[in-house]
Automatic annotation (TrEMBL):
This is Putative metal-dependent hydrolase. One of its GO terms (molecular function) is hydrolase activity. Keywords: Hydrolase. It comes from Marinigracilibium pacificum. The keyword Nucleus does not apply. The lineage of its organism: Bacteria, Pseudomonadati, Bacteroidota, Cytophagia, Cytophagales. SUPFAM superfamilies: DinB/YfiT-like putative metalloenzymes (SSF109854).
Length: 182
């Protein structure tokens, strides 16, 4: 399997020309279902399996789980900043370095799964409550030197959720072929 395909098993994110309410609702459904789908994928994995990588040089399954908790926490904060401030400048973070911290390399994924359960329930309540006008609120991302609307960012996190589910499934399907940390 080609490295690019291993890195992006569902392809790179591509924002549609027009984000209809149907597309937006589908994305919110993806965000809502993510914690249950993730739990179903990882609930029976052994410590050895949690240390399998989804591609050569990629993160382990446990790092992907912990990363999703970190990333999605940052996302809801960005959404709330956009809703309560005028075009706030968000703070990027070094996700590759965060993935190396003790909490992100821990074999205990329980707390990250619990964070994702509660966070996604809260996030979906927020998203489903937003008016069309609120969906157009923006934040500025200095790393991309660009404004992003909440509407388009919902799509990014729908993709992000599905992307990392595919990474975990890929690691499982390849039975540790890409290495582990044990």
């Amino acid at each position: 399997m080609e490295l690019e395909q291993l890195k992006y098993p569902i392809g790179k994110y591509s924002k549609p020309e027009s984000i209809t309410s149907s597309i937006l609702n589908s994305w919110i459904d993806d965000i809502e279902s993510f914690p249950d789908q993730l739990h179903n994928l990882v609930e029976d994995l052994t410590e050895e399996q949690l240390n399998w990588r989804y591609r050569p040089g990629g993160w382990t399954i446990k790092q992907v789980v912990h990363h999703c908790a970190d990333s999605h926490i940052n996302s809801i904060i960005r959404f709330k900043l956009a809703l309560t401030e005028d075009s706030p400048i968000i703070r990027p973070y070094f996700e590759d370095l965060w993935a190396e911290t003790a909490d992100a390399t821990s074999d205990n994924i329980y707390y990250s799964l619990k964070i994702l359960d509660g966070l996604h329930k809260k996030w979906v309540v927020l998203l489903r409550s937003l008016s069309e006008e609120q969906m157009e609120r923006v934040y500025f991302h200095p790393e991309h030197n660009k404004h992003f609307t909440i509407r388009e960012t919902v799509g990014t996190y729908s993709w992000h959720s599905r992307h990392h589910l595919a990474h975990i499934q890929q690691a499982i399907d390849h039975n540790g072929e890409y290495g582990n940390v044990i």
